[in-house]
Amino acid sequence: MAPSVRKSKKAAVESAPAAVQVSSGRECPKCGGSLIQRKGKYGSFIGCKTFPSCRYTVKMSVSAKEKMDET
Q: How far apart are CA 46 and CA 34, in angstroms?
């Protein structure tokens, strides 16, 4: 019999491509790490690159989204 083609959930997550992270060019006020644009359940936001050790986030306004798209 052929081996199972089924992947575990963990294997599927590990093999999934990483999301593109766009640097905002700013520094995190909590830990000093760089801030990057992320996409979450409720839309785009700017968060600390050192997540999960630092959980600093800022909601993205329309003007901030336009600035990030220009770079």
A: 10
Tell whether the model's pLDDT for residue 17 goes beyond 50. Answer: no
For residue 62, give every residue at least 6 positions away whose Cβ sits within 8 Å of its Cβ, in sequence order, or none. Answer: none
CB atoms within 10 A of CB 45: 16
Find the CATH number of the domain harbouring 53: 3.30.65
Query: How many structural domains are present in the chain?
Result: 1
User: What's the whole-model pTM score?
Assistant: 0.55
Q: Would you state the structure tokens that stand for residue 32, as one six-digit string?
A: 């000093």
Looking at residue 16, the DSSP 8-state letter turns out to be S
Q: pLDDT tens digit string along 43-68?
A: 889 999 999 999 999 998 766 555 55
